[in-house]
User: Which sequence fits this backbone?
């Protein structure tokens, strides 16, 4: 079954999408213009198109989830990505493992955005099928998301008082987004099983801001 991913555009609200490759774990549900392969990558082969997945674009603002209230400057950056860590009354930089149907309730994970590296360096490109790779991120991922089986629908929605960005790297490639809802990023669609590394970036170099990621297994 082809798998899809979509993200909302920043200014126009349009969904950014691109041509799938056989190794792409998040293949689009409708045909898109051909995207030039990266140097050294095999040319893409277009699979049969499938019917669009409904409900990818949220029609109403998501429920707000409070981010950690403690200033990010109080937390030592050198230990942030090593393991889940208590901070400001919450645990930040947690990892998450999901199995379809096991527990469909929304999940939340927290962290602090930003770092010294351009997001495009981590993603390996300035633009992806789901949006541009903007801002600055840390050298190590903020979270690891493990999917034990394919998901017909899964969305990541970042919530923060500041403007943040998103990089996801998993089986077959990398995906970025800037403005999914308001000034914060997100990605939604169909996902293959595997291990996904997640970075949350800040638009300012070494700007650090608390955030929450809502992980939804059903469209809102």
Assistant:
């Amino acid at each position: 079954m082809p798998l899809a991913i979509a993200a909302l555009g920043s200014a126009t609200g349009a969904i950014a999408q691109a041509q799938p490759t056989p190794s792409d774990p998040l293949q689009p549900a409708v045909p898109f213009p051909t995207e030039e392969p990266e140097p050294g990558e095999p040319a893409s082969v277009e699979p049969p198109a499938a019917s669009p997945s409904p409900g990818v674009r949220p029609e109403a603002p998501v429920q707000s989830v409070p981010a950690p209230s403690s200033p990010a400057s109080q937390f030592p950056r050198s230990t942030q990505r090593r393991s889940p860590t208590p901070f400001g009354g919450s645990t930040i930089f947690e990892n998450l493992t999901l199995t379809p149907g096991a527990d469909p309730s929304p999940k939340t994970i927290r962290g602090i955005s930003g770092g010294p590296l351009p997001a495009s360096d981590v993603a390996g490109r300035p633009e992806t099928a789901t949006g541009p790779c903007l801002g600055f991120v840390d050298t190590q991922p903020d979270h690891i998301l493990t999917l034990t089986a394919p998901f017909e629908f899964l969305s990541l929605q970042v919530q923060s008082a500041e403007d943040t960005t998103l990089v996801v790297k998993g089986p077959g490639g990398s995906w970025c987004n800037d403005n999914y809802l308001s000034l914060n990023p997100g990605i939604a669609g169909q996902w293959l099983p595997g291990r996904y590394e997640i970075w949350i970036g800040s638009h300012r170099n070494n700007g650090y801001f608390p955030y929450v990621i809502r992980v939804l297994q059903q469209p809102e």
